[in-house]
């Protein structure tokens, strides 16, 4: 299993969250797969049925590298009354050091309830613009991963200064948002395109959730608590 995980991490460029059964979402997913012709996109375990639809078999079924990560997702979904599929996508994306790609309005809404920041697009993206911002989202997660996971491990210490912890995490999100300055250079009506997530920050704000997090093995669960970013891909993107 470790060898398969390593191979997946190397080639993965995004974890897809999407509503099954929608023709509009399927068309957007097919458009997305064409953008990643030579790289892999994966699905969290709870969404594996998507890849059984015609034309979507290239989506890879991902797995929890650790049982603690599965339990971590369940704890967040339960304590925050959030979609388990959305939380699982974030935890899996963190563990695989990849951004989330949310396709369709259901995915965007499910994730927005967990977001700690966003960037609106005031420009219309062409094919090159989408490619650029998929890549920027990838680097957002990759560049922040080691530091944000090491910092998340502080939550297991009873001596951690939670106020200072929350301040540092919030400042990191603000810094990362500056990468997306090109999206603000137009005069179109602004619509959210990039969402930021920090499950460690949410845990620091919720004592009962933090207790659940601390019940898990730090070396395993912290891998699911990195700073995350999601690119929101709307239905009909293939016609834009």
Summarize the structure.
The chain has ten helices and seven strands. It has 240 residues and is α/β, with parallel strands linked by helices.
Descriptive notes:
- By secondary structure, the protein is of the alpha/beta class.
- It has one domain (2-234).
- Helices cover 48% and strands 15% of the residues.
- The protein has ten helices and seven strands.
- Helix 3 (67-79) packs antiparallel against helix 4 (84-95) and helix 3 (67-79) runs antiparallel to helix 9 (207-214).
- The longest helix has 26 residues, at 127-152.
Short key terms for the protein model shown above:
single chain; 240 residues; alpha/beta; 7-stranded mixed sheet; 10 helices; 7 strands; globular
Any chance you could write out the topology, listing elements then pairs?
Layout: H1 2-11, E1 12-18, H2 23-35, E2 40-43, E3 60-61, H3 67-79, H4 84-95, E4 100-103, H5 105-112, E5 117-121, H6 127-152, H7 162-177, E6 191-197, H8 199-204, H9 207-214, H10 218-221, E7 228-233
Parallel strand pairs: 1-2, 1-4, 2-3, 4-7
Antiparallel strand pairs: 5-6, 6-7
Helix pairs in contact: 3-4, 3-9
């Amino acid at each position: 299993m470790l060898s398969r995980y390593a191979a997946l991490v190397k080639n993965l460029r995004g974890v897809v969250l999407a509503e099954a059964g929608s023709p509009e979402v399927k068309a957007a997913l097919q458009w997305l797969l064409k953008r990643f012709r030579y790289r892999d996109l994966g699905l969290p375990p709870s969404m594996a049925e998507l890849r059984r639809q015609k034309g979507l078999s290239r989506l890879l079924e991902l797995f929890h590298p650790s049982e603690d990560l599965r339990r971590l997702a369940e704890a967040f979904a339960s304590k925050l009354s959030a979609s388990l599929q959305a939380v699982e996508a974030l935890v899996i994306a963190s563990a695989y050091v990849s951004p989330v790609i949310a396709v369709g309005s259901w995915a965007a809404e499910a994730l927005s309830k967990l977001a700690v920041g966003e960037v609106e697009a005031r420009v219309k993206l062409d094919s090159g613009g989408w490619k650029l911002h998929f890549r920027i989202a990838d680097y957002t997660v990759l560049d922040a991963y080691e530091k944000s996971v090491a910092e998340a491990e502080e939550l297991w210490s009873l001596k951690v200064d939670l106020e200072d912890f929350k301040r540092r995490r919030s400042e990191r999100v603000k810094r990362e948002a500056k990468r997306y300055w090109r999206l603000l250079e137009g005069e179109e009506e602004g619509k959210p395109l990039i969402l930021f997530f920090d499950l460690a920050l949410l845990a620091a704000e919720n004592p009962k959730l933090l207790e659940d997090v601390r019940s898990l093995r730090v070396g395993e669960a912290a891998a699911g608590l990195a700073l995350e970013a999601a690119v929101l891909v709307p239905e009909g993107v293939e016609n834009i």
